[in-house]
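To the structural biology subgroup,

Please find below the input and predicted structure for Nucleoporin Pom152, which we are adding to the shared reference set this quarter. The sequence is reproduced verbatim from the submission form. If anyone notices a discrepancy with their own records, reply to this email rather than editing the shared folder directly, so we keep one authoritative version.
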Amino acid sequence: MDGTPRLRSAFPATPPTRFRTGQRGGGSPGIQRFSERLPEIPAVAPSIQTSPPSEPMIPEHVIDAPSQRLYAFTVWIGLATWKLYDYYHLQESEEQSLWLFMKWVAIDGTFLFGLPNLRIPWLEWDSATMTLLFLGHAVLDVMLMFRVGIPVTAGFAALYRSFAGAYEMAVNEHPVNPRNIEFNESLILGRQIIHVLPEGSAVLNPERESFCLDGIVRTEARLPITINSTSPIGMDLLRMDLETNTNETIHISKSQIKSMHKEASRLISYSNKVNEPKTLYFPVKKPGLYALAKVLDESNLEVARKRMAHTVVVPCPKVNILPASSDRCRGELSSVEMEVTGTPPMRVKYRRMVNQKPMESTFESIQPEDFVSPLASVDRQNALTVPAKVDTAWAKPQRVRVPLSESLGTAGKWVYSIAEVQDGFGNTVVYSERDHDAQERQASKSSQLHQVISVHERPTVHLKGCSPQNPLKVAKGQAAQLPVQFGSTGKSEIADTPYHVEYIFSPQGDISATGEHSAVAQQKRETVKSSRNPLLIQPAGLYTLTGVSTDFCRGDVLEPASCLLQNPSEPQLSISQEEIFDKCAGSPIGLRVDLDLIGTPPFDIVYQMNRKGARHHESKSKRIERLRDQVELTPKEAGEYEYTFKSISDAVYKGRPLDIRLNQSVKPAASANFMSSERKVSCIDDAATFDVTLQGEGPFSIEYELVHNGKRNKSMREEIHENMIKIETGPLNDGGEYTLALVSVTDRMGCKEFLKGEVKISVRPQKPRVGFGQIEGQRQVDMLEGSKVQLPLRLAGEGPWAVKYVDHSGREQNLRAKQHNEVIAVTQQGLYQLTDVRDASCPGQVDDLARDFEVSWIPRPELRVSQTDIVNQKSNIFVKNEICEGEEDAVEVLFKGSSPFKASYTQVTKPEHGAVAPKNKELLAAVNVASMRMDTFQAGFYEYTFKELKDNNYDPSPKHFTPITVQQKVNARPSVAFASPGKTYSYCSVESDGEEVIPIILHGAPPFNVEVEIKHHGTARPETVSLSDISGHKHELRIPHSRLHLGKSAVSLRRVSDSRGCSRLLDSTTPRIMIAVHDAPTISPLENHADFCVGDRINFALSGVAPFNVFYDFEGAHRKAVAQGSTFRRLAEKPGAFTVTGVQDSASQCKASTTITRQIHGMPSVRVSRGKDSYVDIHEGSEVDILFEFGGVPPFEFTYTRSSNTDKGGRKKGVVLDMRHEVSEEYSMRVRASEEGTYEVVAIRDRYCSYAKPGINVGKKEGQRKLGY
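Predicted structure (tokenized):
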């Protein structure tokens, strides 16, 4: 340690720089102390700091500590000087107050909060001190930078009064502190203190506390013993064992009691006074019934023992949850059992948490059956101590098992945890999270504080898509998936849990006639990990689900639960054929094949058709929904054909091979067909062409016809040797629907075949047409410059259309239109002309009447300024005539365009003093003319610049508008003021030399004219005086004596004008001066009574002009006093006669003589017990006389109190218990008292005066109570 340890409040000492490890200071000079040096305590070297944190940042061998403090103080003085320099310049310019305040707050904060980091001795303040210093500097910054007045004079006056008191002038013309006169403690002296001797007592466990021991945390119980008005030297405690009922006496010796006192003295409630109650604590470490048997005081007498009762110390209660299974199924009972140990009746609070949702419950009155305890029939708070009993069986700890069985209706995590346990005495053990964590670490299997149960959902299973009525058909030798649907009581499948499925199986041949299982059905069990893993079955027969379970729970089988698996017979095909012959030529044209099938419909038959000599074969398939069908095989071309049936499939078996072949020589009949039968659209006057294919043996002859409007036009073509020809119609001159039909074809054998083929031709009734539509009834439009307009197009025909037009510049443009009413978007003015059109299939024509469309621009708005009152113009700058400050003025603005108009302008103000930020304003006009009001509120130069213009059509555009500026100068109004406003000028009632003049100050352009208003006191109408041709800015105002009246008059400045024609009318709030025309002064008393007491104030009212000279006599001495105001006051310091003889004011030399006399009386006094503190000890029932002696003028009225006794030093005030009021006609009085307390007088009154102690209010008689005797 470096130096002597000091208190926090002590003045800090400079840390020593030398002899840090040598001899320590202290001890008497000349005495040497020799001691063997203790071994050094090894210190852990810091890893970062290179020097001890107690040393300054700048080592003291470089700069010593006093010099560092001097340098820091010098820096602070420099900052303060800089701050005063800124304050001085702020007096001249006030625009930077906020910036300077923020600057100095930042500098002060940096300096103050950075200073402790230097660790300079004596300047290492704590954070609270630094914060107070910073706040003080910030307040000083506010007062300096915002020029807040600093009440220096008032502060010094208040400081002076706080030390010296508020002194007043007394009747002897010297200052006196009125508190020394008003609160004279010598007027009431003495006290009578009566003390009634108390009776001692001792009580064991007065607060009826409960105690328990657990041998781990609570190893002992501290029994409280409260003693009152006694000092015991020995105590005996009686202990009765709870298990054996044997008695044991524990003796507490005097030394133990002394140790108990020493330990109890550390408590706040402990009192060193003998008569004050004290609570001592005696520790015990064994359970049992304890009673206070004997207490001996210092006189070897036994102390009374109040409320002798037993205090029971029992083992602390405890509770455990017995081990149980941690996995249960939904719907089962929890079957949790708790074992509670303690003194019945017990209470256990536990917490049940289901899926993170907690709920607390409590078990009350836990006790064994047929158990009787006095704790169960009385209030627990009053049962902590029980009457003395010999039988202690009811207090022994009991072990009770409490079952907890409730339905587990929700799946998830259930947690039962013990919160607290309480025994019959109220001893409570609370189990914290730390106790539960300790159980987890110990992993005890015998007992635990919480039980975790995982409640699982019960599984369910049923079949879907298979039943005995809807069997599952599978090919022989193949396995099928049993359509099992898994679920649970939670409505969905249990995730990540295998299902154990049980089912019985009866083969197809063993199923009974009623469809039931046979007696020898096979029982099987399969495990399925999830629904994604199928349960495969293969043998044909009846499968029925009988059970399902998981690793934890057994579930239910739902219907349908049975499935019938069948193996149908394989599909088979048998064929019979018959040739098909042509009726005309008699040659074969195909085969008619009958198909007979066996299997499960539907069937799919795949066959191939091969033509002899052909390079490719044709594969075909046929779907048959029944067991018999017929197919006609008729090739379109002649040749040798072979038909091969390749495979057959039914609903069960797929791709079973076949090898059935059929052969035939085919010569088909002649036929003709259109290559495309789609409708053809043709333009009017155009021809239509179609491709036709021919089959059979040529050459051919074909007949066709064109049908239109009920008319048929037949045509014939012969000697056709090709298999494909083109048929072309003639020009189709009529619009509408045409039908081209094939009538017949004739082959080489002359066989004529009727034909059905036909196609439709749709001929457009008219040509496509295009033309401009109209906008508001005409093909001409006006639009805003830069905007877009859509020119309407009217199209006839079938879209899409290709339109050509010439734009405003003469260039041809192309447009693809998709609708009949299309638009052309244009942005430029000019003539637009349509030139050509074509629709989806036909060329068209342009409507001559709607060929052209004219587009024009709407003109932009314009603004100009009226030449009225314009004195000068240069380009776009207009100078308006000058005007006075505050007068109304405006300029007319003319608009051209589409109303309403909106002009945005910027107002730039250059005032004569200071600066004003530019303002952006708007001028709105509903017609073509608007007035812009000029700003004349403040004198200066104004400039209004129009920057933007907007009308109903156009938004502001800087490219199309040239700014216009209007300038005007606003002259300041003249002003006039008194040089000393509020001053009162004194005049005599008659004119005399050397009278005062009234100076005034004027601002403006001279010469000035001024009007002055004089209002006399008591008159309603003022007088006006006009002054003209005042050539200077300062003038001395002289009021004509003829305008003055006796008394006071108010002089005000009403109007001033200057040479620029500007004037200012001053209102009634303008500061004014007063003129007083005086007569002789007077003095009159403010109180109606002539008798005063010492300490009272004698007040007089003065009329005239202050200051006054007041002449008076006191105790035969003539005195002169000066009164600065209209009131003369003196403090009555001592008794005597006070007489005022005259008064004189400062307005005249006249002295008014008078005689006003006031009598000052002395204060009454009282002495209790000869003016001393008298102490009397009495026994209960005794009485004592209290003597009161008075001084003053009878009769006497006094009030005295009885308060609680305190220490003899009287440093603490007692509590007032009683207050009484008495009257005495004599100079002394005796009162008898028998109650304990301190008796003292608090108020005294005689014939003229009264006195009360500070803080005593005896005016409320309802608060008084008579003393008891």
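Summary notes: The radius of gyration is 63 Å. Helices lie at 65-90, 97-114, 127-145, 152-164, 178-182, 254-264, 433-442.

Regards,
Lab coordination
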